Amino acid sequence: NEETLPMERPQLKQIDIAFIQTFVLLSVFVQCFCFISVQLVIYQVGLIPSQFYEVLSEKNYGKLKNLVLFAVMLILINSTLKSLDQYISSLLYVSWRKSLTEELHSTYFNGHVYYTLNVLCKDIDNPDQRISQDVERLCKQMSTMASRLLISPFTVTYYTYQCFNSAGWIGFVSIFGYFVVGSIINKILIGPIVSMLVEQEKLEGDFRFKHMQIRVNAESAAFYRAGKVEHMRTDRRLQMLLSTQRSLMNKELWLYIGVNTFDYLGSILSYILIAIPIFAGDYDGLTPGELSALVSKNAFVCIYLINCFTQLIDLSTTVSDVYLELVGLSNLLTRIGGLDTKVDWSWYDVLSPGEMQRLCFARLFYLQPKYAGQWPMGAHQT
C-alpha cells in the first residue's frame, strides 16, 4: 500500500485539475448563455414601451391586459437571468481564487521559499500582499469580464442590425460617428486633467507629510518655539494644495460640460435619425399609433447601441488594468500620470528594484523577443 501511495497522489491531483477545468468551462458557458439570454430579454423589454404606444392609441383593453402580463413576465425573467449571471460570476471568482491561491501556497511553502522571499530577496516586494490582495482583485476582475468579453461583439452586432433595419445605414454611421467624435473630444478635455490630478496627489502627500513631521518632532519644535514658523510653512503647503484644486476644478468644468452635452445629445439623436426616413416617405403607410411605436423602438435601439460602444471602451480599460496588475505596474502608471506623459528623470534613478524588475517583464511581454538576457551592472547596451 505504501508503494502505491506516491502513484495515487499525482493521479488524484490530475483528477482534481481536470474537475476544476471542467467546472470552470461549464460555469463560463452557463454564464455566457445567461448573458446572451439577458440581452435578448432586454431587447424585448425595451420594445414594451413602443407596444404600449400602439395599444393605447388603439384603445384596445384586451391587448393592454395581455401586454401588461407579458411585460411583467419579461421583467421577472430578466431579473432572474441577471441574478443568475451575477451568481455564476461570484462562483467563478471563488473557484478561481481558490485554485490560484492554493497553487501559490504550494509553491510559497515549498521548502524555505517563504523565508527566501521575505528575508533574502529584496527585489520582490510584499509577497504576502500579492497572494492575499492582488490575487483577489485579479479573480474579481476576471470573473466580471469573462462573459462580457465573449458576448460584447455579439451584442454590438445584434443591435447594429436592429438599428440598420429601423433607421437604415445612415443611422448606424451617424451613431458610430457620434460615438467616435464624443470619445475624441472627451479625450482632449481629459488630457490636461490627468497631469493636474497627479500634481494634486503629490501636494496632498506633501501636506500629510508636513503634519506627520510636526507630530513626530513636536517636542523639538516646542523646545525651539518653532510654532509660528511651522504654522507659516504648513499654511503655505495648504495654499499650494488649494490653488491646484481650484485649477483642477476649472479644467473639470469643461469636461463636465462636454460629458453632459453628449449625454443629452444622445437622447435626441435617435429621433433625428428616425425623422430622416419618416420625412422621406418610407413610413407613410403606417397609422399614427404604429408610427409612435416605431419611433419608440428606434429610440431604444439607438440608445442601447451607444451604450454597447461605451461598454466596449470600459471593457478595454478593465483589460488593460488587469495586464498592469499582472506585472504590478498600475501604481507606477498612476504615479507618472499616464502612458503618454513624458518624464524628465531617469527611470533607473527613481524606481525601486522591484519596480525595475516588473518594468523589464512588461517590456518582455510587450516586445516578445526570441532571446532575453541580463546585462551586467554598470554595462551599457550598444
Automatic annotation (TrEMBL):
GO terms for biological process: fatty acid beta-oxidation; long-chain fatty acid import into peroxisome; peroxisome organization; very long-chain fatty acid catabolic process. Pfam families: ABC_membrane_2. It comes from the Eukaryota. The keyword Transmembrane helix applies. The chain crosses the membrane at residues 17-44, 64-81, 167-190, 253-279. Signal peptide: none annotated. GO terms for molecular function: ABC-type transporter activity; ATP binding; long-chain fatty acid transmembrane transporter activity. GO terms for cellular component: peroxisomal membrane. This is ATP-binding cassette sub-family D member 4-like. It comes from Sinocyclocheilus rhinocerous. The gene is LOC107732056.
